[in-house]
Amino acid sequence: MTQPRAILGLILAGGLARRMGGGDKTLLAVGGETILARTIARLLPQCARMLINTNGEAARFAATGLPVVADSIAGFAGPLAGILAGLDWAARHAPDCDSVLSVPGDCPFLPRDLAARLEQARARAGVPLACAASGSRRHPVIGLWPVGLREDLRHALQDEGLRKVESWGARHGVALAEWPDTPVDPFFNVNTPQDAAAADRLARNHPQA
To answer: Which of 51, 90, 186, 207 has a 20 to 30 Å separation from 115 between CA atoms?
Structure first.
């Protein structure tokens, strides 16, 4: 188990869940507990602080005891806006955290060494950013983001209208930390009711995943 680090864990729950027909994907049950509960349990040992980003009613997450922050960029500008909100919150409220670890709120099998391996990857590559990969797929939203780049990101979002995570990351350099995608992809994400059913089966068949 990794030890708490000077990293702020950020759960991105600000999407519209269109393919689920709306609602909160984070509150769907997988293996007998919500995806949100699974995510918190996996990130807490890896991070010094934790935060939820959402653009809906914050009260629905009150039971977690975690602070909740909305996007500062209007119009559902995507995950980069949520990441910026996390970076801004860290700068104001968690000055001991020099990086934000972002994860989407729909991944029930996140690895327990996520923060450590992302940190190792960017240190080895000598670049400021790192993101996760599994199998042949990159997962650009699952990554480490230095708080010191928040003004650059704000400029990209507000003044350039940039929305693609990979486009902004490429400007600074992104290291990859890779995981196998079998027997369970640690970055399996739940986008549809069919995905939710598949995730529940995986959780029950692979309780250590």
So the answer is: 207
In which domain, by residue range, is 137 found? 7-205
- Measured CA to CA, the distance from residue 45 to residue 171 in angstroms comes to 31
Give the residue among 39, 21, 22 at the shortest CA–CA distance from 30: 39
Tokens of 118: 């992302």
Instruction: Decide if 1 is inside a domain.
Output: no
The number of domains in the chain is: 1
Q: SS3 sequence, the chain? A: CCCCCCEEEEEECCCCCHHHCCCCHHHCEECCEEHHHHHHHHHHHHCCEEEEECCCCHHHHHHHCCCEECCCCCCCCCHHHHHHHHHHHHHHHCCCCCEEEEEECCCCCCCCCHHHHHHHHHHHHCCCEEEEEECCEEEEEEEEEEHHHHHHHHHHHHCCCCCCHHHHHHHHCEEEEEECCCCCCCCCCCCCHHHHHHHHHHHHHCCCC
CATH of residue 186: 3.90.550.10
Q: pLDDT of the chain along its 209 residues, tens only?
A: 444 469 999 999 965 554 444 568 899 999 999 999 999 999 999 999 999 999 888 898 999 999 999 998 887 789 999 999 999 999 999 999 999 999 999 999 999 999 999 999 999 999 999 999 999 899 999 999 999 999 999 999 999 999 999 999 999 999 999 999 999 999 999 989 899 999 999 999 999 99
